[in-house]
Amino acid sequence: MECGVPSENRLSRESGDPEFPARRAFLIEAGRGIGFAAVGGLVWAGFLDGKKAYPTVLRPPGSVEEERFLAVCTKCGLCVEACPYQALVLAAPGDGRPVGTPYFVMRERPCRMCRDIPCAAICPTGALDTALLSDAGEQGGKALNINKARIGLAVIDRETCIAYWGIQCDACYRMCPVMDKAITVDYARNDRTGKHAILGPVVHSEHCTGCGMCERACVTKKASIFVLPRRIAMGESSDRYIRGWEAGDEMRLEEAPEDTTTVTPRSGKSPTDYLNREDL
Amino acid sequence: MPMIMANRYRILRRVVQVGVLSLFVTGNAWGWKVLQGDLSSSLLFETVPLADPYALLQVFATGTMVAAQALLGGGIVLLFFAAVAGRAFCGWVCPVNIVADLADTVSTAVGGGNRPPWMSRNARYWVLGLSLLLSAWFGIAAFEWISPIGALHRGIIFGMGMGWTSVAAVFLFDVFVVKDGFCGHLCPLGAFYSLAGGWSRVRINHSKGQCTSCMRCIETCPEPQVLPMVGKWDGAVTSGECTNCGRCIEVCPEDAMRFGLRMQSNTQKDPKEVTS
Fold first, then answer.
1. What is this model's ipTM?
2. Which of A258, B6, B86, B129 would bridge with B200, disulfide CB 3.0–4.6 Å?
């Protein structure tokens, strides 16, 4: 058995040294290969881990949820080329977005909400899925409906929005392609002057497509209304808080999970233990 | 004229490489409908889908299915290279080939061509396996995120950004670190087409009768291990690692290398091995 300490002589592989059998040469070679792959793989893995983190990227209409999108988009740019307004951008290295994937910069070029949705229609991989943008049409067919797009959700910063200061501005409201549904204007009394109104824009998530026309239109230096991905912009209410004033809202209870007990490290202690402690 | 004849396939390859890229560029810039998209997925004349089968393989490794159009496109491309052209993508389509050829010219000109190979040409198959492993682990097509091929062709079509850095890295790696380093040792796409293209019809044929064993073909070949028959027996290049680039044909002074078809008769092993 050749398993002693290798001498310099034994490490010369070309010599055909009988003390250095082919098996050991093979093992060393295989070990090198595995080590090489491990080094490369770990560097590569660290790089990939960082690449998945760009939470505020805004995808084209009809995009599947972001994790699946990153898996299935092959970075072909067909959606970018299909956009007649050249609103979509394909991320180049250094753009700070997942490389090769399409995105919007709403302040510069918002989505114009084409009725034929060419970007989603041309996607070959299903990263953009027209089924998410379709209504059941006549004769059982499907009809594209861009109003079903959920690129993101417009969010208003009321502290910098001049309409909420009491200055009249309805730029976002006027530009909204889903006017009077996605953005409405709320009338309120201006308590500061006592005799004027505040005409504040309000976004409604059930209609907002996230097209970004409002962000483009906003007159403040940095937009006071801006689009964020819905998963960032929206919370999620609990199943057991019911709006009793809305007909049918208690129906949500039917689908709520049975087990709603929250278990924390304190859960094991009983309140009576605490009250009966002698040092209370 | 002799200059042109001595580089006829190189010139033809540049025409194809630049032509394909140009059609993609015009597709994006001017809306020409000849070839839209990029090398990952595209549409030919607005009807025929094409897709990179290796990119799709990585998507499958993430556990995701792609839509039918991409599947069809990947199938068409895979069928073309596997049945007809072999690993010709590397020599005739891939834009990194231009960078690698330039690096090879530079490194040969400064006398760096005879460096001992410390990296195995099989490293690419490890990278190929690793890319599928990492795709499954992270849920994203792993090589597509670091690919200098993607950075270069997307950069030319859609805007380079910082993509030039990885292209420059390939060039410097090839010149200073390993000869034919990226395309011949590391690239998993080349490895994929090597595995897929080994049975293709279009093959380079060698005729021993005309060969004077000057070894110029082996010196110039970016994958010299595919030419074991030179000066020894008649036969086709059977290894999938041959990129069908035609360099060996150009440099052969005796016309002993030619493009031909794969036949039962010319794909025998070394006759000496067969008889012994």
1. 0.85
2. B86
